[in-house]
Amino acid sequence: MPDRRQLILGLAAAGLVPLAARAHHGWGWAEDQEFSLSGVIRGVRLGNPHGELDVEAADGLWTAEIGQPYRNDRAGLTEALLAAGTEVTLEGHRSRNPDERLMKAERLIIAGKLYDLYPDRS
Fold first, then answer.
1. Which residue segments constitute the domains of the chain, with CATH numbers given?
2. Which residue, 16, 52, 62, 112, is most buried by CB atoms nearer than 10 A?
3. Residue 30 DSSP label
4. Under 8 Å between Cβ of 121 and 105
5. Per residue in 3-54, pLDDT tens?
6. Rounded mean pLDDT, 90-112
7. Spatial distance between the Cα atoms of 11 and 88, rounded to a whole number of angstroms
8. DSSP characters over 33-100
């Protein structure tokens, strides 16, 4: 059984987890102005709390947050569409931190077709 000090340290550390987990949720971390990025998908991670794409653009490798599973499904995005090697244009908002190659995508364009993840934000 842990002693009192270990218990206190454990509870304190557990209290920090939600702060780290919220670091990139929502929109507060992103710039207000619209941003567009075109490139080739190099990696895909789908699931909760949101999916992510690694996109190789002219200026390097970017991470693009896409929607939660229900948003991706509603927009018509499938794993097959998001396969590595697929050319994509992402529209949304980049990180306020200019040193990060990170963006939150609202819309994706693949093979000329628009996939709108956040139609209420368009």
1. 29-121 (2.40.50.1010)
2. 62
3. B
4. no
5. 555 545 555 454 443 333 334 456 676 777 999 999 999 999 998 888 999 9
6. 95
7. 43
8. S-EEEEEEEEEEE--SS--EEEEEETTEEEEEE---HHHHHHHT--TTTT-TT-EEEEEEEEBSSTT-
